[in-house]
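Example 419, ligand pyridoxal-5'-phosphate.
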Amino acid sequence: MTDDIATLTDAPPRPAIEHALAGWARASAPSELREILPLLARPGLLSFALGMPAADLLPAEAYLRATRRALEADPLPMQYGVPFEPLKRHIVGMMAERGVHCREEQIFLTTGAQQGMSLLARLLLDEGGQVAVEATVYDGIHGAVKPLRPEVLTVPSDEGGIRVDALEAMLEGGARPAFVYLIPEGHNPLGVSLGMERRLRLVELARRFHLPLVEDDAYGFLRYDGERVPALRALDEDWVLYVGSFSKILAPGLRVGWLVVPEALVPTLSILKHGSDLDVTSVAQRCLSSYLDSGELPAHLERLRTAYRSRRDVMLDALERHFPRAVRWTAPAGGMFVWVSLPDGVDTVRLLRRAVATEQVAFVPGAAFCAHDAGDYAHCMRLCFTSLPIDKIEEGVARLGRLLTDEVRVGPLTLVSPD
Ligand SMILES: Cc1ncc(COP(=O)(O)O)c(C=O)c1O
């Protein structure tokens, strides 16, 4: 058991070729999130760690039918291909639900949102330039910018999301990031959605400082309640570069995402993309388009939203009942994550090891999401509420609650006990 847990920190021996690697590669270490993966295969483990869609809600049957239709009708998906126009047309239609009016010429297909982020980073950021991200944010953005060895400027967030006043002060102080990376809807990992006022202020800053906003809307179609606000891209066509994905709303295994960008940027994005993978797989483009032709996506999305809303509510209720009172958490209106803050002084990396070893339950420690100052978030954890069925959510939170209560007795934690 402890051997598995050691994989969290044990790196393979450095190879002889290491000296030949590019500077950024020599300096880079695998992300903590990626290293957690081997731990999660353990039978019986209840994992709140990865941002997985519910396996029981993946539309496998409908997708199989769509695949058969696509491949029987036309052998072309098996060939090299150009971006599939009917798929772009579907995406234009979907964007209207996010308040965005765009044209097919502004859609650029990508191999998932992650590739979209990487392409935009390479489009906007000069080597060694500045980039601005929130102090706690999806670690994929760090991977996307790392080869360009940027100066990463961090902007604080509060319960309303990114502190736009702090970003403004940074810009007024002379910082000139190549772009700001934002997750306005269902933030990963903080679980917040930006209100309209902050969105408008962000767009105003973008125009005033000629600052591109990279809007990662991976969770934009997963809003469960609260005021529905448009995507940032709906508020500005010039400065907002939109990143979308089918991963969280259909299936991450498809590896299909998209960008919405000014049309003039598309040829340069094509050069960048062709340099790494030529194209999104033609098979995925055609089969996905065939699935969307069937008109089944809206009902599927509704099913997801209903199920995820219930799972979120069950998790929030279970946290209330099983966690000690000094613990705080966010109540997300969208997305997949609850962000939990334990009292200062708790080290959630250490806690994870105990959680896996003694209670067979996993989460992601807060430190995994920090560009700098991981210590500031060492007492936090991210819980994903979508991947486990309802009874397992209840059970997993109870296990974690037991562990935390036990920490009060034997560990370094000093918690206020419930009255
Ligand atoms: C905010 C955010 N952006 C992008 C991604 C990656 O999405 P994709 O699977 O489309 O590459 C994730 C995955 O967890 C995410 O949380």
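Summary: The longest strand covers residues 240-245.
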